[in-house]
Each structure stands twice: as structure tokens, then as C-alpha cells.
Amino acid sequence: MVGYYIEYIVGVFMEVKFNNKFEEKLVRGTLWVQKLLFYRVIQRTLLLIFPFALFGSFVKIVQTVIIGKEGFLTDIFPSLNNDFIYRQIDNIATGLYNLTLGWVSVIAIFGAAKYTAKYYQRDDQFAGITGVSCYLIVDYSYSKVMPFSFHPQILGIRGLLFAIVLGIFIGWLFKKLSRPNPRLEETSRGPASSVIERAFISLKPIIISLILAIIFSILINITYYSEAPGNFINSLATEYTSRNNWSQLGKTLIFSIYTIVMSFLGWSGTYSALGVEKMDVLSTVNLNYALNKHTAWNAPNPFTSSTLYHAFATFGGTGSILGLIIAILIISKDKDFQTVARWAMFPSLFNIGSGVMTGIPIFFNVIFFIPFILAPIADMLMAAVAIQLHLMPPSVYPVPIGTPGPLIAFIGTNGSWQALGFSIVAIVISVYIYIPFVKMAAKVKILDNLSLRKEGED
């Protein structure tokens, strides 16, 4: 059977032409990875959370851009901050966001546990519910001030990796600690006694999962393990200072790459796509210089997270995925890609890329790993060269939260048309980097569909 499958795959590859050896190896490698259970569970889980992520991204626009107290629109129209109706809308938007995109990892662990258990022919419904219960137990915050609260850091999109891994682990526990139920479909529609039978079959993995979740929750609340790695990295990023421009550039590139890779894996990085972290020492020095000299030209620290990463590497969100969306709209003939790109285009203009990250999906997608890192780094290096050659000033002024990506450098330089021009160049660079990988993704999807169709026929 394995030999026949390999022979079939080789035959299918003969029907698809590759431009070079690198493309062929990357497509082959992606297809191999997609056959793994871990990857298949991830793909299904991401598609499950896609509508919630997309809806939450639109809510996030309302919350941060339109009516947020420090948002882009309220910075232009300050009177909105004092409007009672707008404040009530803001409260509603905050609640909707917290229960959609801000709660998306809870949905993810349900899907991961459910699909893993289903693959092993165990009770997927009980596995999914157990996953949600364990995740909330692990994330529970023991506090006398707020007796019922959770750590928000891992409930949202930044806890996606942890949720998926924990969900797969719980599904595996169901495989090891319970037995297959040959009448699962029948009992799911049957009387209450059938449900009780299913509960007792799954009782052992449920109890073990909950006990492990309680132990892990205690450890988290004692050691603050969930925040320690991020706090350590963030302290390095903000406290490390150097007057040497090349040291600044190297530091910014290193922490940018760390942020991009962690975001690709559904975890939190050093820098935020919306640029809401606290200003570091070098950025503060730049701002004071600009306020004293009334210009951003010749700022003493040209290569900081504000001047490079936030100003040029987050168009559409982490990974410069606005370039991916434009590339899809230009060359892709895949209806699913086109639909996701059109729906996600508007949120991505405000650097909210959750819709594309879960709908294509980009998370854990081998084919997009290279451009996801390469596009923002190329944009940053282009901006660094332009700043070093004094072709544009660095972005030193504070920018309202939710400012459209192409306007960040323009506003951050107090209206430099050179900065706006290089922002457009950055978008073009990102599009050209993503185009060949969009073509590869189309080939991967075609080959994957053909192989699945062949498996169905057999």
C-alpha cells in the first residue's frame, strides 16, 4: 500500500511542473508535513476558529481604531472620547472582542482535542469539552482582588500554540485511557443511558486531564511561568541600549525575527503588531530630540523598533501579510484564498491579520514560513538603508493605535512624504516576495486534493 501511494504521488508530480529544484523540494516537504496527524489537527482547528477570528478582527477595528480612547479616529476627533454613546459602544465592542478573538484559544483547544480523539476513534465530544475545562483551569488566576478571573495573555490568539498542543495531548490521553466505542454514532443520538455509557467509557481520561490541569494551574500561579519568558525577553529588548547604530540594527532585527517566528507559531513575541508596548529608552531619546529640534531628521537612534519594525514590518499584521493579501488578489485563482483575502483586506489595513492567519491559514503553514520572515526583514533593511543614506527621516513620533500600516511611517515622521513613498516601496517588496509562494501554495493544494480524491476512490 505504501509503495502504491508513493508511486501515485510520483505520477501526480509528473502532471505539475516546477520552476526549480527548490520549489519542488518545498512543495514535496509541505505535502509530507500535511500528512502528519499533528498538522492535520492544526489545519482543522484553524479553520474552526476562522469565523470567530474574522469577526473579532472587525470588532477590534471598532474598538481600537474608531472609538478607542487612544485610537486613530479619536486622535483626529478628540470629542469622541467624551461622547456617552461612543463610550457605550466601546464597552459593547470590548465585550464582543473578548468573547471572540480574545477567547479564540478556548475554541482552538476544543477543536484540537476533538479532532485528535476522533482520529483515534474515541469520544470526540467529551474530549473537546474536557479540553475547554482543562484550559480554563490552567488559565485561572487565583486572586483575592478578582475572585473570578483568567490570565488574558493565553486566552486569545497569542495562546494558540499552547491551546493546540494541550488539546492534542488530551486527545492522546483519551486514546490511552479509554477504549473505542463501536456504537459512538448510535449513542450520540440515543437515550440518556447511552450518554451515561459514553461518560463512563471516557471517565478515566477526563479525571486524569482535570487533575493534571489543576497541578499545572497551581504551578503557573506560583511561578508566573506563563509570563516569565515574555517578560525576560521584553526586558532584554527594552533595557538593552547602545549608541552604535549597527548594534541597534542588529538588536532590532534579532527581536523582530523572534517576534515573527513566535507569531507564526501562535505565541507571543517581543513586539506588538499594533505597536502598543511601552517605548524603550532609545525611542524616548528620539522623541525628546524631535520635540527639541522640531524635526525627525538626524535623530540619534535611527534603528529602533519604532523606526523599523512598527513603521515598515507590520503592514497587515506580523509578517507583512498585507503583501500576501495583495499577491493573492493579483495572481491566485483559488476561490478559497480569494474569499479569505477579500474579507481580511479591510482589517489588515489596520494591521489586524487574524483573519488571514487562520483562514488561509498562515499559522504553522510550511509553505509560507519563509516569506513570513523574509518580507518584513527585507522591508526593515530597505528602510534602514534609506534612513542611513538620509533619504528619509526615522519615525520617532507616537502613532495612534490602529493607524493604517502604510501611514505609520508618514505620521511617525510628522508628515514626511519620503517616508510615505518608502512605505509604498515596502508594500511592493512584500508583494513580490509572497507571489512565488502563493503559486507554490496553489500547487500544494492541487496535489493534496488529488491525493485525497485518489485515497477516497481506493
How would you characterize the overall build of this protein?
The chain is mainly α and 458 residues long. A two-stranded antiparallel sheet has the order 1-2. The radius of gyration is 24 Å and the shape is globular. Residues 1-8 have low confidence and may be disordered. The protein has 21 helices and two strands. Strand 1 and strand 2 form a beta hairpin. 70% of the residues lie in helices and 1% in strands. It has two domains: 37-223, no CATH class; 228-449, no CATH class. It has helices at residues 2-15, 21-34, 37-66, 72-76, 84-98, 104-119, 124-139, 160-177, 184-188, 192-201, 203-223, 228-239, 245-264, 281-293, 305-312, 321-331, 335-349, 354-359, 366-388, 405-412, 417-457, and strands spanning 140-141, 149-150. The termini are close together.
